[in-house]
């Protein structure tokens, strides 16, 4: 007996800011508004809550350190 395999359709999109390509299995309602995580944090640096270890791995400057007074 032959089995039917469920194939998921893969959609390819490009980030509107960085131009990076990525694949998703769900169709986007507004593909022109899709951005990568790095592009989001470039637009919103105040919301960048990633640990310093991750920022160092990505080569992102951590910013000014807090001083104890």
Number of strand segments: 2
Radius of gyration: 19 Å
Q: Work out the oligomeric state of the chains in this entry.
A: single chain
Continuous helix count: 2
Average the pLDDT over all residues and give the rounded result. 84
SSE arrangement, N to C: EEHH
What does this entry show, briefly?
This protein is α+β, with helices and mostly antiparallel strands and 69 residues long.
Structure description:
The protein is α+β, with helices and mostly antiparallel strands. It has 2 helices and 2 strands. It has a two-stranded antiparallel sheet with strand order 1-2. A hairpin with a 6-residue loop joins β1 (11-14) and β2 (21-24).
Please write out the topology.
Layout: E1 11-14, E2 21-24, H1 37-43, H2 52-58
Antiparallel strand pairs: 1-2
State the main characteristics.
69 residues, alpha+beta, two-stranded antiparallel ribbon, 2 helices, 20% helix, elongated
